[in-house]
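Students often ask why inverse folding is considered easier than folding. One informal answer: many sequences map to the same fold, so there is more than one right answer. In these notes we will look at a single instance of the problem. The structure comes first.
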């Protein structure tokens, strides 16, 4: 399953997916962690954190985005990329694709290729067979020549006016334990036994594709317990507790990200991932706080929101409960974290998209107003706040740098999809775009 709610800042600010999160909980005397691999940080045994340390979002390096191609804005009724209008973008060999970025994107694209050919593309742009040639080539293409791979097999296509907005997400690591103990007593729940998914399409053709979640109470089907009820103990006897966290703010933000790691007292790491959700609508608490004047200038980032919640614990608890959505987890033992395609996502290469506007598994080039967001990205995930054309949520892996980038990521610029050569001509011949 995808990294649910996949935004580090915009999802919190909207009404809608690292180092220790939040590192505000690390003690000044805590031993430094040692990176074991890109998504993993393992610490020596240590006491639970006490004194907060506030770590700000990383300041971006500004950049000037490339101009979009002249095009009409997509009609308001457009529900897919095909209905939004498309024009040819610039030649790939003219784009500022770095060697490092191309290598990461090629590696990520290889992972997507099998699923990309099997999936039904909801954008209306491609068919599975369109990707076959590039997928065959990707399997043996030398990584050192990755840039030429994309130049050889792809063309750029702009959807609508091409105006892009990008946020960021990452894989958090928080302090936790497998068994309840003093200072580590915030339950992390698995899927409740009485949570029921209902496919409404089974009852009416007009409701095909729509699902709801709830529970049976007497002879009625009712909404499942919201965050307040769950935190007040209504899941007792209904859901397994797979682990415990030592801080409710930490686990709240891990739910927003949808996947993460628990740093255990013995120095081990337990990976957990999205297993389900209570069916309640997601509410971005950042927007609530901003509208109420609780966040000052420069505080509308994930770090600023977390700082306020920690400085005002009672009010913070009430604010978090206004987000009635609640995520359930399972322990992960394989490669990960996993995106919406069921495949591992790659830091600095994978992005969450709206699959109605970007084929899942396809590459895209973003030219943004900050250098770190500019480059090749591969669509391998989705997110509750990631809706519409040219909307991307970039994944940054784990670690302090990933948390800092994702927490402050808000970039605007231009997006071009990378589609197999010949696709645009076929689309134009089939349905010319004005």
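Output (designed amino acids):
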């Amino acid at each position: 399953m995808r990294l649910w709610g996949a935004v580090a800042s915009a999802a919190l600010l909207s009404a809608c997916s690292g180092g220790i999160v939040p590192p505000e909980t690390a003690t000044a005397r805590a031993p430094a962690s040692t990176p074991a691999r890109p998504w993993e940080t393992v610490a020596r045994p240590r006491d639970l954190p006490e004194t907060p340390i506030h770590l700000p979002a990383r300041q971006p390096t500004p950049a000037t985005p490339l101009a979009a191609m002249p095009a009409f804005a997509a009609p308001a009724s457009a529900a897919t990329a095909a209905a939004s209008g498309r024009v040819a973008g610039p030649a790939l060999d003219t784009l500022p694709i770095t060697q490092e970025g191309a290598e990461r994107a090629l590696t990520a694209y290889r992972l997507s290729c099998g699923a990309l050919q099997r999936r039904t593309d909801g954008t209306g742009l491609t068919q599975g067979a369109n990707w076959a040639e590039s997928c065959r080539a990707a399997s043996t293409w030398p990584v050192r020549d990755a840039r030429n791979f994309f130049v050889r097999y792809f063309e750029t296509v702009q959807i609508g006016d091409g105006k892009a907005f990008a946020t960021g997400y990452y894989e958090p690591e928080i302090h936790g334990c497998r068994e309840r103990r003093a200072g580590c007593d915030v339950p992390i729940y698995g899927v409740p036994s009485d949570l029921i998914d209902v496919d409404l399409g089974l009852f009416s053709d007009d409701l095909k594709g729509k699902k709801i979640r709830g529970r049976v109470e007497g002879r009625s089907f009712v909404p499942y317990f919201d965050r307040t009820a769950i935190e007040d103990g209504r899941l007792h006897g209904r859901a397994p507790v797979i682990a415990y966290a030592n801080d409710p703010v930490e686990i709240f933000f891990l739910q927003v990200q949808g996947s993460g790691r628990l740093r255990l007292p013995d120095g081990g790491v337990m990976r957990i991932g999205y297993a389900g959700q209570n069916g309640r609508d997601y509410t971005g608490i950042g927007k609530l706080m901003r509208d109420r004047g609780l966040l000052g200038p420069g505080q509308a980032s994930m770090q600023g929101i977390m700082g306020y919640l920690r400085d005002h614990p009672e009010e913070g608890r009430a604010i978090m409960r206004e987000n009635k959505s609640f995520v359930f987890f399972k322990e992960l033992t394989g490669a990960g974290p996993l995106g919406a395609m069921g495949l591992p996502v790659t830091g600095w290469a994978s992005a969450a998209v709206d699959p109605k506007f970007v084929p899942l598994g396809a590459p895209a080039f973003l030219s943004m107003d900050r250098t770190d967001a500019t480059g090749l990205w591969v669509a391998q995930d989705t997110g509750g706040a990631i809706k519409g054309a040219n909307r991307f949520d970039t994944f940054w892996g784990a670690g302090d740098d990933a948390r800092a980038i994702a927490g402050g990521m808000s970039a605007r610029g231009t997006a071009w999809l990378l589609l197999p050569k010949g696709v645009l001509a076929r689309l134009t011949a089939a349905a010319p775009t004005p």
